[in-house]
Amino acid sequence: MWRASVITIFPDMFPGPLGASLAGKARAAGIWDLAAVDLRDHATDRHRSVDDTPAGGGPGMVLRADVLARAIDTVAPATDDRPRLLTSPRGKPLTQARVAALAKGPGVVVVCGRFEGVDERVIQARNLEEVSIGDYVLSGGELAAMVLIDACVRLLPGVMGKEASGAEESFSDGLLEYPHYTRPQLFEGRDIPAVLVSGDHGRVAAWRRAEAERLTRERRPDLWAAHAAARDGPSARPAHVPGDAPKKATDG
């Protein structure tokens, strides 16, 4: 069983969205397990304090190294080989490749950042891997932890209906996902691209690949540059788009 342990000062926020949809069904089926641990349970004073003022002065509060270390040691002792992650805006961006690697392992221990941050000494002493879900700041790391866990859980065997569902989506091969269409055939003057109803599976696959490349070039030049360099080198040229392209919306 894939196990996720979350250390937080707001355990009541969990399971939250993780209790619904695919993640909730998978948890009920015993595919994965979630434990939300209250950091305040590991404080030693009568006020259950987990933070203190920053050394050197400044605004806000900092999570204490000693309290957090006790919580980590209780949740994940030395024999626990799960990665120890800290949700932090200064962490490495979470990628689909990292998510896939985490999903193949035994699970994760996630420390939810709060206040101004976490005492650097516990990050070093407990080998916490700082992870960010984007270049913005949240009130705390709980929502980021949910995002990370959900991304992992949906890749576990038996969670998604079809294996191809995860193999062809955005970021699976360094590209954004191609556009999707369904009934009705005609919607407000916009038709489904003819190639998708041609019955020619080869042309459909080629169209989808070309559209994925087009969208990636237009919307995520950073991803496209990395993809092109890995595939063809810096001189990669845009792929030819076979078949009919979807109609563009116009004003008026």
Automatic annotation (TrEMBL):
Signal peptide stretch: none
EC id: 2.1.1.228
Keywords: Cytoplasm, Methyltransferase, S-adenosyl-L-methionine, Transferase, tRNA processing
Region (Disordered): 221-252
Residues covered by the tRNA methyltransferase TRMD/TRM10-type domain: 4-225
GO molecular function: tRNA (guanine(37)-N1)-methyltransferase activity
Protein residues bound to S-adenosyl-L-methionine: G113, I133, G134, D135, Y136, V137, L138
Location of this chain's protein in the cell: Cytoplasm
GO biological process: tRNA N1-guanine methylation
Pfam family name, one: tRNA_m1G_MT
A GO CC annotation given for this chain: cytosol
Source species, domain of life: Bacteria
Swiss-Prot/TrEMBL catalytic activity: guanosine(37) in tRNA + S-adenosyl-L-methionine = N(1)-methylguanosine(37) in tRNA + S-adenosyl-L-homocysteine + H(+)
Enzyme class per UniProt: transferase
InterPro entries: Alpha/beta_knot_MTases, tRNA_m1G_MeTrfase_C_sf, tRNA_m1G_MeTrfase_TrmD, tRNA_m1G_MTases_N, tRNA_MeTrfase_TRMD/TRM10
Gene3D superfamilies in UniProt: 3.40.1280.10, tRNA(m1g37)methyltransferase, domain 2
Family: Belongs to the RNA methyltransferase TrmD family.
Function: Specifically methylates guanosine-37 in various tRNAs.
Quaternary structure and partners: Homodimer.
HAMAP family named among the record's database cross-references: TrmD
Protein name (database record): tRNA (guanine-N(1)-)-methyltransferase
Species per Swiss-Prot/TrEMBL record: Rhodoplanes roseus
